[in-house]
Each structure stands twice: as C-alpha cells, then as structure tokens.
Amino acid sequence: MLSLFRKKTKHYADLSSVYADMHSHIIPGIDDGASDMETSMLMVRGMMDLGYKKLITTPHVQWEMYKNTHEMILAGAAAVKQKIEQNKLDVEFVAAAEYFMDEHFDELLKEDEPLLTIKNNLVLVEFSFIRQPIDLKEKLFQMQIKGYQPIIAHPERYLYYGAHKNWYDDLKEMGCLFQLNMLSLCGFYGKKQEELAHYLIKKKYINLVGTDLHHLRHIQILKSSSTVTDTVNRLLDSGMLQNPDL
Ligand SMILES: [Fe+2]
C-alpha cells in the first residue's frame, strides 16, 4: 500500500535524438566503471531507456591506474556484446578508449600502435584535472601528425581553464573537438564545471556530448534532469553535435 503514496521520480530524459553515446565505462572489471557483467547489462538497459541506439564505450587507458591494452579492451567488449545478443537487446555496442595523455600514450604514438577510435580518426583524450600538461600542445600535435583528430574529453572539468579561458581558444584553433559531459549541465560535478559547460556552449565550442557513465547513479541523475534533455536538444537543433553521425 505504501508504494502507492511514494513519490515517484518523474522521468524527463529523452536522449533518443543524440542517437550515439561516445563516452562510457561499461566493460566490467577493467577500470572504475562497471564492476561485473550484471552491472554492465543494467547500464546498457539504462542507456536504452534514455533513448540511445548506439554505445561507443571508452575504458580508461591510463598506465599508472589502468593498464588496459587494446586486446584487453576488445576482448571485454566482445564479451559484453555477446551478453547483449543473448539478452536480445536492440542496441549497437562497440569499444574505443579514453586515453590519458601520459608517457604510455606517447609510446603508443611513437610505436605507431593503431589507436582505438570513436569513428574514423577520432580519438578521445583526457589529461590531469590539477594542471594542464606543459607539453599538451606538442602531444596533440603529435597525434595530428599521425593522422588522428583529438577529442578533448569533458573540457569543462579542467577547472584551471576557468582562469585561462583563452587556452580553450588555443585548443580549438589547433583543431581539437570538445566533448561535454552531460552531467555537468545539471551541476553534478559542481557549480564551476556547470558554469564552464555553459560558457563553452555559448562559444559554440562543443562538438559532442557524452554520459561518461561510470555507474547506475549517473543514469538516474540523467533520467531525472529536465535541464540536460532541454539543453542537449537545443544543441542538436543548432546542428553543433556530431553524435547522430557516429
Ligand atoms: Fe571517462
């Protein structure tokens, strides 16, 4: 009886027009995302509830924390895909990676190891939240020389850019794409990240949106936020987002 009176969370989110998510941590047991296959499947179902038709998952490749080789990522993705098929879930699932720009990443580039791409030559990269790497531009340039197009993951989360907003201009001038974490739009990471997210949108600097899904709570927050759906749909209407083409 009690459940009749329990307040239900209103389901606002409909991200079906985004079509493809390109930043998540769904493969079990290889980073700080899903811990087991059961959780992975709940995540996949949750993403389908949000309206997604394609999931490009991006495990961390960060050598100090997550020594994920391309083989490990692809094997993990194949196992998740098999479960998706067993469960007859109608969603496309592929893997790329979120590369932390550390020395290991330099090695991969130097050794011409083919990077896991979001699509074509698009590669998702991240770096320190504490300070911008001094050689960031050089590293991005090295990627470009090898034929890759860098996508900067969650630029609004590098708070040191708040005091140096011209650094964003520099990255854009270099030809980097920017991927916004949708959770930043509802203040999930903090007020400053939310403000930077809106600053970047106003500058028309955002090219892609991602969930950066690590756990089921992220889906609940996205589901209950009308701000996220409204803002993302506005971005889609303005033609800025490349997600539907992935
Ligand atoms: Fe991530």
Task: Write up this protein.
The chain is α/β, with parallel strands linked by helices and 246 residues long. It has a single domain (14-245), classed as Alpha-Beta Barrel (TIM Barrel), CATH 3.20.20.140. The chain has nine helices and nine strands. Strands 3-5-6-7-8-9 form a six-stranded parallel β-sheet. Strands 1-2-4 form a three-stranded parallel β-sheet, covered by helices on one side. Helix 2 runs parallel beside helix 8 (216-224). The longest helix is centred in the N-terminal third of the chain and has 17 residues, at 70-86. It starts with a helix and ends in a 9-residue tail after the last helix. Mean pLDDT is 94; it is low at 1-8. The structure holds fe (ii) ion. Fe (ii) ion binds next to loops.
The number of helical runs is 9
Q: What does the largest sheet look like?
A: 6 strands, parallel
Rg = 18 Å
Bound molecules: fe (ii) ion
- Element-level helix/strand string: HEHEEHEEHEHEHEHEHH
**Lateral strand order in the biggest sheet:** 3-5-6-7-8-9
Structural class: alpha/beta
The name of the CATH topology is TIM Barrel
Q: What's the number of structural domains? A: 1
Q: Assign an overall shape.
A: globular
Which CATH-level-2 architecture? Answer: Alpha-Beta Barrel
| CATH domain class name | Alpha Beta
Q: Write down the overall mean pLDDT.
A: 94
**Regions with pLDDT < 50 over 5+ consecutive residues?**
1-8
Percentage of residues assigned to helices: 25-40%
CATH superfamily: Metal-dependent hydrolases
- Please state roughly what percent of the residues sit in beta strands, choosing from under 5%, 5-15%, 15-25%, 25-35%, 35-45% or over 45%: 5-15%
Quaternary organization: single chain
